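look at this one:
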Amino acid sequence: METKYFSLEEIGKNNGKDGNKTWILIKNNVYDVTEYLDGHPGGGELITEWAGKECTKAFDDAGHSGDAKKELKRYKIGELREEDRKQKKSTTISNPKEDRRSFCSYLTCGLCA
């Protein structure tokens, strides 16, 4: 089976909204978890919060079991393309719900840099 490669833009479009699939990115692997949302033990909203985004840290921080990691493999549809891996290192894809800084903080940080 040939590996499919996806861009950050393609992944971002699959955010579970407006009829789009729900994809997540973990350790440069792309997973289509659309069909798993209802079966997730913690509830689908924990996944949809990260739909279309990089969520390696959140996945690891949740302390998933070995069984959960095996289950995840079933949903792998491809990998992040090489040129976007380089971009990802310099650009952080964050979850707005976890980013507590205000717009003023961003503006101030930008002026101080």
Q: What stands out?
A: The first helix runs from residue 8 to 13. Residues 98-113 have pLDDT under 50 and may be disordered. The radius of gyration is 15 Å. The chain is about 40% helix and 15% strand.
